[in-house]
Write a structure and sequence with these properties.
mainly beta; hypothetical protein yedk fold; seven-stranded mixed sheet; five-stranded antiparallel sheet; 33% strand
């Protein structure tokens, strides 16, 4: 699963990495993004151009009666998401990319759980595969944009921590995932990334609380 991550990239850097169009969002850095909070997502707009939006983490399908349904939809299993009413339409028509500094995972150590940060081995952002949806609450003028992160079986590095990991995409896969490449089969993209892409390090248990949000959360624990 993927239940917490850090996203501190300035919007102008995200714009340069992905070649987006349109205005940049007013996004504050976060070292502890949790479900139901908002963060930057790259998607294709109605004009066929890449853009950056702030979206709520936890997908709310168009048919939902209440926004609370998104609380349990922050991840989608890649193996069966295409057959789930919750994710089916978004996965087919509205895929997106989530750039992150690192994501967090917890490993059982005796009766305790030690949190770890997982980032790109070369220090560049990790780009997670997602799907997004537009939902409008009755009587509301503005739609709510929300998203989920796709997960898959772990690679060798992640298997030591957890039995799931987010789908991580390299630049060569971004156009296909976003739907810029016509009639692309995306099933082959929803696989664990190479272990060599990842670096893992232990971090403070302060990350356990979403109320904590500062640069120290992602710093390696002192030996």
């Amino acid at each position: 699963m993927c239940g917490r991550y850090a996203q501190t990239l300035p919007p102008d850097i995200v714009h340069r990495i992905f070649g987006t169009a349109g205005p940049l969002p007013n996004a504050e850095p976060s070292w502890n993004v949790a479900p139901t909070t908002r963060s930057m997502v790259v998607r294709i707009d109605d004009d066929g151009k890449r853009r950056i939006d702030l979206m709520r983490w936890g997908l709310v399908p168009i048919w939902a009666k209440d926004v609370k349904i998104g609380v349990r939809a922050f991840n989608a299993r890649s193996e069966d998401a295409a057959g789930k009413p919750m994710f089916r339409d978004a996965l087919k028509k509205r895929r997106c990319l989530i750039p992150v500094d690192a994501f967090y995972e917890w490993k059982a150590v005796g009766e305790a759980k030690q949190p770890y940060a997982i980032g790109h081995a070369d220090g560049s952002p990790l780009v997670l595969a997602g799907a997004w949806e537009r939902w409008r609450e009755p009587g509301s003028a503005e739609p709510l944009l929300s998203f989920t992160i796709l997960t898959c079986a772990p690679n060798q590095t992640m298997a030591a921590l957890h039995n799931r990991m987010p789908v991580i995409l390299g630049p060569e896969s971004w156009p296909a995932w976003l739907g810029e490449t016509p009639a692309t089969e995306i099933g082959g993209l929803m696989q664990p990334c190479p272990s060599a892409w990842l670096r893992v390090w232990p971090v403070s248990t302060r990350v356990n609380s979403a109320r904590n949000n500062d640069p120290g959360l992602i710093e390696p624990l002192a030996a």
